[in-house]
Design a protein that fits this description.
The complex is a heterodimer of chains A (310) and B (287). Chain A is mainly α and 310 residues long. In chain A, 73% of the residues lie in helices and 0% in strands. Chain A has one domain. The longest helix of chain A has 27 residues. The radius of gyration of chain A is 20 Å and the shape is globular. The chains are: A mainly alpha (310), B mainly alpha (287).
Chain lengths: 310, 287
């Protein structure tokens, strides 16, 4: 039971990292990124390829340390975000949505088809788990602490950024782009920075995920699990609020994995039907939140000047 | 040379299907100001409704075709009344998120009812007809072309000759001006859903006739649909038709130089180039 709880919290934490990244992009800057799964995959594969011992089937064998893998995952995800941002961030906000869904699909096609790079549909196995031999049975507990530490660092960075003048500009752009432009802010640059930083966070999340499961394949990065759940988490928790994002991750993942436990008691003949039903449930939940409580459970945290507070 | 002509002919068939889907997507985009991410899954729904009537209830194909289009339009109006109508007051991006949710609900509903496996309208294999110059076409593909042309002409007459069609184009062109002239916007929105759903259901059925039915058939076409819409210019139904054909043909022609698995990427690249060079599209206005 305890071990399941730890496993559950680790996955929650990884989703929490994704949700924080998305919250920076959507919640604070109004960037509509529905390619989360793509950045997730890029982070996971980058770190896996860099840290694995050599194998003949695919690129890899650099045997680099875990921390290098994580940092590289962030850098590569950031570069991809930069490349997407250049053509789309000057345009209407919904074009970014279409572009990100496109890039996520292309990343999935590459991962699936370029066997020399990713081993195709068979996926990459044996991704090193840091300090695994030292810790043995207590390993998942250690990993949970690692996830929490990473989550805390990211949370701290985002909160610092958001409360700084930089964060104020982001929110200004979200509320009214023209006002921000009139105030002499380079809207495009700020948007690009937010997109890149958010994508880097997602890349880190992807790497953490890869080292935990030790196995990744294209199946893991389908739009449903990779992108849509993260969006539901953010909307339910409250976009524009980092704590809300984390709360949303916890609640949504509880529902998602709770219904999985329930449907596992059903006869195996209808498991695909049950899986479809769970997705419908999450979809309905999203619509209900959008219709009844569009600001989410926590809503945006108030940003009032300390002078006004008094 | 033969290969080239064959690819172009395949591309036109695919282009017909994309064009039918993107006319509705473009009009909805123009009138409701949001990209309907459930459009591909509405296409799938239409295809499965036709499967229900044709295979499961044993009706003739033409009747199944018409009934499936009507039922898809009905579903579209219901969804609009329950979900989108209340969301219209908020930001267009909220509508977009709502449509992503609808897309998932529809796709998984289809999987729940009809299962994840492929379905066919007809089990038989069709012998291809040889056209001149060695190009081969299946009789079904000629049917697809004929039905598409017929539907496009009907849509054209509807948009040009009827009062509702004119109101639709007016709203898509300039919302405020249209409102000032006393157009009943809710009524126009309803009819836009009907037109969009009918055409996209037809596209799904034709795709099912050409290949097979699967729960993700429409979702996989979503990117080409958006590419065609943006290429043609958002809100311009005629641009969408042109865009559909361009995307269809270029996807097929791309297999000459890149592996066919990357076909969806071609639509995406064309779209990105268009956004970079002329974001208003071939036949659109400023955005």
């Amino acid at each position: 039971m305890i071990s399941y709880l730890i496993f559950f919290l680790i996955i929650c934490g990884i989703y929490g990292i994704m949700t924080l990244g998305l919250n920076l992009q959507w919640g604070y800057t109004g960037l509509f990124n529905i390619g989360v799964a793509g950045f997730w995959a890029v982070g996971a594969y980058t770190s896996a390829i860099l840290t694995k011992p050599p194998v003949p089937e695919h690129l890899g064998g650099f045997n680099l340390p875990f921390i290098v893998g994580i940092l590289a995952a962030a850098v590569v995800s950031g570069i991809i975000a930069f490349l997407i941002g250049i053509p789309t961030l000057r345009l209407r906000e919904d074009y970014l949505a279409i572009a990100t869904i496109g890039i996520a699909e292309i990343i999935r096609l590459i991962v699936k088809n370029e066997e020399w790079l990713t081993n195709g549909v068979r996926g990459i196995s044996g991704i090193p788990k840091p300090f695994h031999s030292l810790l043995g049975n207590a390993y998942n507990f250690f990993y949970l602490i690692l996830v929490i530490v990473v989550l805390a660092i990211i949370y701290f960075i985002i909160q610092r950024g958001i409360q700084s003048p930089w964060g104020r500009v982001l929110r200004a752009i979200r509320e009214d782009e023209e006002v921000a432009t009139t105030a002499g802010k380079d809207v495009f640059r700020y948007r690009l920075e937010s997109l890149i930083l958010g994508a880097m966070i997602m890349g880190v999340g992807g790497a953490i995920y890869a080292h935990f499961t030790s196995f990744i394949s294209p199946e893991a990065f389908k739009p449903m699990q990779g992108t849509f759940l993260v969006w539901v988490m953010l909307i339910i928790g409250g976009s524009g609020n980092s704590l809300g994002a984390l709360l949303g991750a916890l609640i949504t993942w509880s529902i998602w994995s709770g219904t999985e436990i329930l449907t596992s008691f059903l006869p195996s003949a209808i498991t695909t039907q049950a899986a479809a039903f769970r997705v419908i449930l999450i979809g309905v939940l999203l619509e209900v939140v959008l219709l009844t409580k569009p600001e989410g459970l926590l809503g945006e945290d108030p940003h009032v000047s300390s002078v006004l507070k008094e | 040379m033969v290969l080239l002509l064959q690819l172009i002919s395949n591309g036109i068939i695919l282009g017909c299907i994309i064009a039918l889907g993107s006319i509705g997507l473009s009009l909805l985009y123009g009138i409701l100001k949001f990209g309907n991410f459930a459009h591909g899954d509405m296409m799938t729904l239409g295809a499965y409704f036709a499967f229900l009537f044709k295979v499961q209830l044993g009706m003739p194909m033409w009747a199944a075709f018409v009934l499936a289009m009507a039922l898809t339009a009905f579903v579209a109006i219901i969804v609009d009344q329950i979900i989108y109508k209340s969301l219209r007051k908020s930001d267009s991006i909220i509508l977009l998120i709502g449509s992503v949710g609808i897309a998932l609900i529809l796709r998984n509903f289809i999987q729940l009812i009809w299962g994840p496996q492929n379905h066919f309208y007809d089990k038989g294999i069709q012998m291809p007809i040889k056209l001149g110059l060695g190009v081969r076409v299946k009789p079904n593909q000629i049917l697809i072309l004929v039905v598409t042309v017929a539907l496009v002409i009907l849509a054209h007459l509807f948009l040009r000759k009827t009062k509702m069609g004119k109101a639709m184009r007016a709203m898509s062109d300039n919302m405020d001006l249209a409102k000032v002239t006393g157009i009943n916007t809710e009524q126009v929105i309803k009819w836009t859903w009907v037109l969009g759903a009918v055409l996209t259901a037809a596209a799904g059925i034709l795709l099912g006739i050409d290949t097979h039915l699967s729960p993700s058939m429409g979702w996989n076409l979503l990117l080409p649909l958006f590419a065609a819409t943006i290429l043609g210019g958002i809100g311009s139904p005629y641009g969408a038709m042109l865009g559909g054909l361009v995307i269809g043909v270029s996807q097929e022609l791309s297999t000459l130089i890149i592996p066919p698995t990357y076909k969806p990427g071609v639509a995406f690249l064309i779209m990105l180039l268009m956004l970079l060079i002329k974001p208003t599209g071939l036949m659109g206005r400023s955005v």
